Amino acid sequence: MLGRVNHVGVATPSIEQWAERYRVLLGAEAVGEPFDLPAQGVRVCFVDAPNTQIELIEPLGEGSPIHGFLARNPAGGQHHLCYEVPDIHRAKAWFEEQGMRVLGEPRIGAHGTPIFFVHPKDMGGVLTEIMESPRGEH
Amino acid sequence: MLGRVNHVGVATPSIEQWAERYRVLLGAEAVGEPFDLPAQGVRVCFVDAPNTQIELIEPLGEGSPIHGFLARNPAGGQHHLCYEVPDIHRAKAWFEEQGMRVLGEPRIGAHGTPIFFVHPKDMGGVLTEIMESPRGEH
User: Fold this and answer.
1) Known catalytic residue: B55?
2) pLDDT of residue A75
3) Minimal Cα–Cα distance from B10 to chain A, Å?
4) Are B5 and A49 in contact (CB under 8 A)?
């Protein structure tokens, strides 16, 4: 059902501070430009490892959904895990048939393709993002 | 400095329960046989995604280092992130030169190669395992 791990989401109070650390760890060219996703209340920065990505996520605005996580984990930490699927609507129907809780309707995610989240309680405590693979990369 | 993400470590109160879920999510052949690592106080089970692995970790014995994590996260959750390096001793020296805290001496990990952990406070809150790549896979 699920494909490759597109990224590991890591929440942080400061992308700027940790992007610098990742430049040292994975190379300057591995760290992308940060950008805002106002509809989702986050600012993000993708870091390339050889086989997957780390998505650094910083709160954007007072209603950011990651304020709660950072209140519990002030230094930041692993926040979610994102798997690719070929078709987001078929994936949503499949998760619902399995009795797993899909959080909201598919919407455009940080990579420009549709995504949804699955409730962590149905995934062993792991907040799970399901992302349609970019076209041509199926 | 760091190579591929070897695995995402996910702590769970029950490998048996969640291995079944991962068989449905990633295919029966993706889920390995669980095995005990008594020296580390954990029982582990590797699950293959196409580009990396999920390591399910369950406490083994009363002194297991993941009891505290499961007390804070009873449903389980993302516990650590493991990167490969070509040479564990060079990697340890490098982290120490950077002023990052290496937790103990290199020891044999779940894949049979030497590993160490880096303090989460030096990695944006992410407990980080550094693992020497299996021979022939550099």
Assistant:
1) no
2) 95
3) 8
4) yes
- Please report which confidence band the pLDDT of residue A55 belongs to, taking 50, 70 and 90 as the band edges: very high
Q: Residue B103's beta-bridge partner residues? A: B117
CB B3 within 8 A of CB B133: yes
**pLDDT average, residue stretch A46-72:** 97
CA B108 to chain centre: 12
The amino acid occupying position B54 is: I
- CATH class of the A5-132 domain in this structure: alpha beta
The pTM assigned to this predicted structure is 0.96
The chain B residue lying nearest A15, using CA atoms, is: B124
Question: What is the overall mean pLDDT for chain B?
Answer: 96
- C-alpha distances in Å from residue B36, one per residue of B45, B114, B119: 9, 17, 24
A78 → closest Cβ in B1, B52, B78? B78
pLDDT in tens, B27-59: 999 999 999 999 899 999 999 999 999 999 999
Picking from A17, A19, A15, the residue whose alpha carbon sits closest to that of residue A37 is A15
Q: Cβ distance A42 to A58 under 8 Å?
A: yes
Tally A–B CB contacts below 8 A.
105
Q: What are phi and psi of A125, to 5 degrees?
A: 85, 0
Average pLDDT along chain A:
96
| Residue B84 DSSP SS3 | strand
Please say whether the dihedral angle defined by the alpha carbons of residues B87, A83, B126 and A39, taken in this order, is positive or negative: positive
Residue B72: closest CA among chain A residues belongs to which residue? A72
Q: What's the CA gap between A7 and A84, in Å, rounded?
A: 9
| Domain assignments of chain A as residue spans, ordered by start | 5-132
For residue B68, the 8-state DSSP code is H
Cα separation, B49 vs A15, whole angstroms: 28
What's the CA gap between A64 and A55, in Å, rounded?
16
